[in-house]
């Protein structure tokens, strides 16, 4: 994979097999025009890393809070 170098301006190829193709920053390209290769840097894409599931503490107080119910010990809830 290749991407346009940061110090190079976006461009559109006017001749050859890539004629009409535009190249811009923020895009990855599998094929690039050989006569413009110096404008690109090769990107070695790493294998995607699976994120570990995020564990949350979901006790009765949290379940009540998610329902919008007042919790004991907080303003608007608790013992009278």
> Strand order, biggest sheet?
1-4
| Largest sheet entry | 2 strands, antiparallel
Proportion of residues in extended strands: 5-15%
Shape: elongated
Structural class: mainly beta
Q: Average pLDDT value?
A: 79
Percent helix: under 10%
Low-confidence stretches: none
Number of separate strands: 4
State the order of secondary-structure elements, H for helix, E for strand.
EEEEH
Q: Rg from C-alpha positions?
A: 27 Å
Secondary structure tally, helices: 1
Question: How far is the N terminus from the C terminus?
Answer: 66 Å
Topology:
Blueprint: E1 2-4, E2 11-12, E3 22-23, E4 40-42, H1 60-66
Antiparallel strand pairs: 1-4, 2-3
List keywords for this structure.
80 residues, 1 helix, mainly beta, two-stranded antiparallel ribbon, elongated, two-stranded antiparallel sheet
Structural account:
The protein has one helix and four strands, in the order ββββα. It is mainly beta. It has one helix at 60-66; strands at residues 2-4, 11-12, 22-23, 40-42. Helices cover 9% and strands 12% of the residues. The chain has a domain at 2-42.
